[in-house]
């Protein structure tokens, strides 16, 4: 598949979801363990930046996304997780950008 960078990114996210969902149990949903592996493998720098809070962060993402409380994340629920990750990643990006600018201009 070749397309725009955004199309390629969406394809990769969907493909990644299905790769991890197929690891155990229901092949169309993610367990907490599958979600943890997906995030740790595919967002290592972001997860590392959370430090000791990363397991809590993942558990809370899972709990908040599991709307029907079946202890599985279907693709629709995964979209909630993607939105939250994008929001948190964006916030971290701005913090890093600000820290970089402040250091360059002697504001730290």
UniProtKB/TrEMBL annotation:
Q: Which GO terms describe its biological process?
A: endothelial cell migration; inflammatory response
| One Gene Ontology CC term in the entry | cytoplasm
Q: Which SUPFAM superfamilies match?
A: EF-hand
Domain EF-hand, chain residue ranges per copy: 60-88
Q: Which InterPro entries match?
A: EF-hand-dom_pair, EF_Hand_1_Ca_BS, EF_hand_dom, S-100_dom, S100_Ca-bd_sub
What GO terms are given for molecular function?
calcium ion binding; calcium-dependent protein binding; chemoattractant activity; transition metal ion binding
**Assigned keywords, A-Z:** Calcium, Metal-binding
Question: PROSITE patterns per the record?
Answer: EF_HAND_1, EF_HAND_2
Q: Does the keyword Calcium apply?
A: yes
Q: What is this protein called?
A: EF-hand domain-containing protein
Q: Which organism is it from?
A: Loxodonta africana
Lineage, uppermost ranks: Eukaryota, Metazoa, Chordata, Craniata, Vertebrata
């Amino acid at each position: 598949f070749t397309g725009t960078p955004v199309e390629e990114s969406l394809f990769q996210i969907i493909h990644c979801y299905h790769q991890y969902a197929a690891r155990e149990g229901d092949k169309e949903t993610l367990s907490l363990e599958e979600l943890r592996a997906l995030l740790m493998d595919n967002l290592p720098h972001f997860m590392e930046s959370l430090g000791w809070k990363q397991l809590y962060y993942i558990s809370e993402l899972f709990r908040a996304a599991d709307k029907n409380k079946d202890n599985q994340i279907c693709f629709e629920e995964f979209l909630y997780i993607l939105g939250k990750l994008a929001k948190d990643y964006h916030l971290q990006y701005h913090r890093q950008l600000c820290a970089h600018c402040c250091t360059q201009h002697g504001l730290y």
